Structure formats: structure tokens, C-alpha cells
From TrEMBL:
Descriptive protein name: Helix-turn-helix transcriptional regulator
Pfam families, sorted: HTH_3
Residue ranges annotated for the HTH cro/C1-type domain, each copy included: 20-72
Record GO terms (molecular function): DNA binding
Organism of provenance: Alistipes finegoldii
CDD domains reported for this sequence: HTH_XRE (cd00093)
InterPro entries listed in its UniProt record: Cro/C1-type_HTH, Lambda_DNA-bd_dom_sf
């Protein structure tokens, strides 16, 4: 069971990483450095999976892009209904 939970966590992390990248690209292809400077977060470490973002980190990213947490998570489709 622990292995399944770990797999789910990795899956969620990958979805969050892709969402952050998607937001950067939707906003004039901002660089990791631009987002990092504006939010004072290590975006490179987040996007490489070295740091798992907490809710505060995601909230800061949402404020930067002027979106709600709901808008951030809406396209993630996690967990799926069959899990």
C-alpha cells in the first residue's frame, strides 16, 4: 500500500510541475528566473521535482498569475475517480 501511495504522490507532483510550466508558458513564456524573482521561490527546484510544493508555495504562484487555487487545480484531474 505504501508503494501505491508513493506512486500517487509522484503522479500528483508531476501534475503540479506541469501546471506551473503551463502557467509560465501561458503568460508570455516567462522564465523560471522571472517567476522565481517575483515570488522568491526556487522554481527550478520545484519544476525538477527536487522540492515538493506546499499549499503556501502554490498560493504564491496563484497570486503571481492572478488566479485562484481552484483555477490552479481545476485542470489536474487528480485523483481520478477510479482510484
Amino acid at each position: 500500500m505504501e508503494r501505491k501511495k508513493q506512486r500517487r504522490d509522484e503522479e500528483l507532483l508531476q501534475k503540479i510541475i506541469l501546471r506551473v510550466k503551463e502557467l509560465r508558458h501561458m503568460h508570455d513564456h516567462q522564465s523560471q528566473e522571472q517567476l522565481a524573482e517575483a515570488t522568491e521561490l526556487s522554481i527550478a527546484q520545484l519544476e525538477s521535482g527536487k522540492n515538493f510544493p506546499n499549499l503556501t508555495t502554490i498560493s504564491i504562484i496563484c497570486k503571481f498569475y492572478n488566479i485562484t487555487l481552484g483555477e490552479f487545480f481545476a485542470p489536474l484531474d487528480y485523483p481520478t475517480k477510479d482510484n
